[in-house]
Design goal:
There is one protein chain. The protein is mainly β. It has 1 helix and 33 strands. The strands form 9 sheets. Strands 1, 30, 31, 32 and 33 form a 5-stranded antiparallel sheet that branches. A 4-stranded antiparallel sheet has the order 4-5-6-7, with no helix packed on it. The longest helix is centred in the last third of the chain and has 4 residues. It starts with a strand and ends in a 5-residue tail after the last strand.
Length: 409
């Protein structure tokens, strides 16, 4: 389904005076009943837009709703959560390029809807910093925007984390459905000690896991910390696995059995080279993660790089993993790879290219501001929702929604 379309022109960066004429940055969430919430950025108007789709695919809203409502300020890279049991509750986190006095613009904004996306409360600034919140620094001159995450637990409590350009990793939570949030606490990372980037959260009961990558280091490993008191305090950070490669872009998910699953990308030859997707897990009561294994399969031979993976779990504890496919070192990603495991982690199916992406799509994948996206949603029944954006310079840009189920072997 084409959700939105626009021009495809990106002018030179002039902060909020830049001429960016395209649509981009889709994110998706699907609830137990198959209701799908999609948000994306309309950069020509500097807005975050939302549409909700009923289980039959019909849009709930006559027109997409402007959630960010910040004229003259770029809003981009949203992350969305729809309540599994109540499709009226929809929550959004995004990055506004607010310049508050520091060298980099960025604040983390949150808004909620309690009426199915028809209206949203006024956006709330969670970060309130001058440090450029939402920037996941890779080097002093390269970073991905969208370096933040938002998840909900089984009780409806919300958890958010983000990094800023200087490197600190921040965490906050809400126990009143987004009415208020706790004061952000510093979990890890600083300017001099490997800046944190790309945080990911997973929650089960009082256990909150927070994992992240690090910048400014060619042999970076994935780090994590755990809270046993619902996020009131976090243990000292640890490494998931130590290797000589460059690990990046982690993503966490709990399954119903209490196993913590983790995917990330790693380049054995160092930063800015070809990446493969790796998988590992931490069993209930285990003291460490299992040895990681590459799951990219034949995509590792057919494409230059597979990067920025995401993982989700259905009600039968089946795992689904999505990633960006780059056909050439010089090109942006084009197409999305997808695999699954029906036995909880022991083996993964040979990956496919998501139909309608790759060779079949028009233009390269979007996410011009950074590839730290959340494009995959899976509900307990195994219904899948995937979003993507495409950008064909000087021709058109599009937001796409793919719905379906895999034929599991």
């Amino acid at each position: 389904m084409v959700i939105d379309s626009g021009d495809a022109y990106r002018g030179p960066w002039r902060m909020n005076d830049s001429e960016f004429l395209f649509v981009d940055d889709p994110t998706v969430s699907i609830n137990d009943n198959g209701v799908i919430a999609v948000a994306w950025a309309d950069l020509a108007n500097m807005d975050i837009l939302l549409q909700v789709f009923e289980p039959d695919g019909k849009p709930r809203l006559r027109e997409p709703l402007n959630v960010s409502s910040s004229p003259g300020i770029f809003s981009w890279l949203p992350k969305i959560v729809i309540n599994d049991g109540d499709a009226n509750q929809i929550y959004l986190l995004w990055q506004d390029i607010v310049f508050s006095g520091g060298s980099h613009g960025g604040e983390i904004f949150f808004a909620r809807s309690m009426d199915g996306g028809r209206t949203f409360d006024a956006p709330m600034n969670l970060s309130k910093t001058i440090a450029g919140a939402g920037k996941g620094r890779l080097t002093s001159t390269r970073w991905d925007n969208g370096s933040f995450d938002l998840v909900m637990d089984e009780n409806g409590d919300l958890y958010a984390a983000w990094t800023d350009y200087e490197g600190p990793l921040w965490f906050t939570r809400s126990s009143d459905a987004g009415e208020t949030f706790t004061r952000p606490q510093h979990v890890a990372g600083d300017e001099n000690d490997m800046p944190a980037r790309s945080p990911t959260l997973a929650v089960r009961g009082n256990m909150v896991y927070l994992a992240w990558a690090v910048g400014e280091y060619s042999r970076a490993n994935i780090h994590y910390s755990v809270s046993h008191d619902g996020g009131l305090s976090f243990a000292s950070p640890q490494e998931v696995h130590r290797s000589r490669g460059h690990a990046d872009a982690p993503n966490l998910a709990f399954c119903g059995e209490g196993v913590l699953h983790l995917v990330y990308a790693e380049s054995t030859r160092g930063m800015f080279r070809s990446y493969d997707v790796f998988y590992t897990h931490r069993a209930t009561n285990a003291e460490s993660f299992a040895a990681p294994k590459a799951i990219t399969g034949h995509h590792s031979a057919e494409f230059y790089s597979a990067h920025f993976p995401e993982i989700d779990v259905d009600g039968e504890n089946r795992l689904y993993v999505l990633w960006e496919l780059a056909p050439d070192r010089r090109l942006r990603s084009r197409g999305l790879g997808l695999t699954y495991s029906t036995d909880g982690d022991a083996s993964f199916a040979q990956p496919i290219v998501v139909p309608g992406t790759g060779e079949d799509q028009t233009g390269q994948n979007g996410s011009q501001q950074g590839l730290l996206m959340r494009k995959l949603g899976v509900n307990p029944s195994g219904q899948i929702a995937i979003v993507n954006s495409t950008f064909e310079p000087s021709v058109s840009s599009h937001i796409w929604l793919f719905r379906g189920e895999l034929e599991l072997n």
